[in-house]
Design a protein that fits this description.
Oligomer: single chain
Strand content: 25-35%
Shape: globular
Distance between the termini: 84 Å
Strand order of the largest sheet: 11-12-16-14-13
Number of strands: 22
Length: 470
């Protein structure tokens, strides 16, 4: 008789049943020599089973394909807005194939759509961009329609796709995989590397080394203290406590202000820039930075604060000047959290002096164009929803719209966003527009007698200067 364990077959001793029976009946005193041998064999067998199962469980899960690997000739299915609903990897032989893992909720993914459209026109049939999403066709159909209506871009994408995600596992989006004309993986990058210059070099087969996206592979739980017990690294780059550490390869770039169950306040910013730390500290808010258009850098050497695209790659700059900061405070210091963070920054970067001052600058000012109240709420349950093509709120204050305009929709605008409506109550407002375009927003706001008007205004600006001791 044989019992199979995995792929290993181990013979069972002939007298094993008798041995177990005798043991069960407590007749060990008169057990013969053969029975003892059978009993020992049973014990050895059980140990073998334990060792095999433990070894199988201990095996690491495959990490997917790496740079230099050949991609198998898999079939990509569920493709929409294309001549065929499925293609094989071999169909792209001789061309540079860039897999673009994306989702509709991913802001950088959406921002890349017009950029990739321009790259398609520039390189023609030499390069194929293949967007891939885990979302179903039903989930993204509304989004695809809005992209077509607002941007005049027809998105071709594979939907409900899991096979490629198994081959190229990732945690953060967007995620790009570069595959050459021979089916060899040449690079795995973030969206920062998808540029005309890099594609040109890749097609020319020069010695191009793109920065690899490590995708947060270091274990990190945001509800635990950073760098304690190996959370986010081994602590070898610890620089300052409350804690400040140099750029840590593999950590995501994010910020958060929260209060835990014990009432402890936690400010965390991982792999971010120095200026973003100042923007967070001086915001005095738990949800967003001071917008980039409300900060002024007046220093002799701005490179540590502001990335100059012409002088270095973004990743190299961030590794040199970026870092991670965390502050954890007991409940009695909650109201002093941002002041303590400012004091930390003064100690960490004594070469700078940061203040908030009023300056008269060009701004986008939200104003009412009539005295009629077209914002009066209908008494519905408070509601807030927004995406790149619209904003909707019920029974909410107007500052919700202003925050989204300043921090998300018009974050790249050089003009600060101000509220001069004088409307302090709750409001209902629903608009459909290209939310990164002021003209489109204003057209949608006409129904509420609201307009964004450009004019000079006194604005609280974050000013960063060289310190007197620098």
């Amino acid at each position: 008789m044989k019992r199979k364990i995995g792929l290993t077959a181990t013979p069972m001793p002939k007298n094993w049943a008798r041995a177990i029976y005798i043991i069960g009946k407590r007749k060990l005193r008169k057990v013969d020599h053969n029975v003892v041998i059978a009993f020992v064999a049973v014990i050895i067998l059980l140990l073998q089973m334990f060792i095999i199962v433990t070894a199988v469980n201990a095996q690491e899960k495959p990490k997917g394909l790496q740079i230099g690997d050949n991609i198998p000739d898999v079939t990509i299915t569920n493709i929409i807005n294309a001549p065929a609903s499925s293609v094989k990897i071999s169909d792209f032989k001789g061309k540079l194939l860039i897999l673009d893992f994306w989702a509709t909720w991913c802001s950088p993914c959406v921002a890349m759509i017009p950029k990739m459209e321009n790259l398609k026109k520039e390189f023609g049939d030499k390069v194929v961009f293949m967007p891939v999403t885990y979302q179903s066709e039903k989930e993204i159909s509304r989004f695809v329609k809005k992209i077509r209506d607002q941007m005049d871009i027809k998105i071709t994408t594979a939907t409900s796709n899991k096979d490629l995600a198994v081959l190229f596992p990732h945690r953060e989006l967007p995620h790009y995989v570069w595959i050459d004309g021979n089916g060899v993986v040449q690079a795995i990058t973030s969206h920062m590397e998808v540029t005309s210059a890099n594609i040109t070099k890749m097609l020319a087969k020069t010695d191009l080394r793109l920065a690899t996206k490590n995708d947060g592979r270091i274990p990190y739980e945001r509800n635990k203290p950073f760098l304690i017990g190996g959370n986010g690294g081994d602590g070898s780059n610890l620089k300052y406590h409350s804690v400040f550490a140099n750029y840590t390869e593999g950590l995501p770039s994010r910020s958060e202000v929260s209060v835990d169950k014990l009432g402890n306040t936690r400010i965390t910013a991982t792999n971010t820039s120095i200026i973003n730390l100042y923007r967070l500290a001086f915001s005095g808010r738990t949800t967003e930075f001071i917008p980039a258009n409300r900060r002024v850098v007046e220093v002799t050497d701005p490179d540590p604060l502001v990335w100059n695209e012409a002088s270095s790659g973004y990743k190299d700059w961030k590794m040199k000047h970026g870092g991670s900061y965390e502050l954890i405070l007991p409940p009695n210091l909650k109201e002093k959290a941002f002041n303590i963070m400012k004091a930390d920054l003064d100690r960490l970067f004594p070469q700078y002096n940061a203040t908030v001052e009023k300056r008269k600058v060009p701004a986008l000012v939200l104003k009412r164009t009539s005295a009629e109240d077209k914002l009066k709420p209908g008494g519905d349950k408070p509601y807030l929803q927004y995406d790149p093509f619209g904003f909707s709120m019920k029974n909410k204050t107007l500052d919700n719209l202003l925050v989204q305009l300043a921090v998300i929709y018009l974050q790249k605008s050089p003009y600060p966003i101000l509220d001069r409506t004088g409307y302090s109550g709750k409001a209902d407002l629903t608009i459909s527009a290209s939310m990164s375009d002021v003209k489109s927003i204003n057209k949608a706001l006409e129904q509420y007698d609201l307009q964004l008007v450009r004019e000079h205004a006194e604005v609280d600006m974050l000013i960063i200067r060289d310190s007197k001791t620098n």
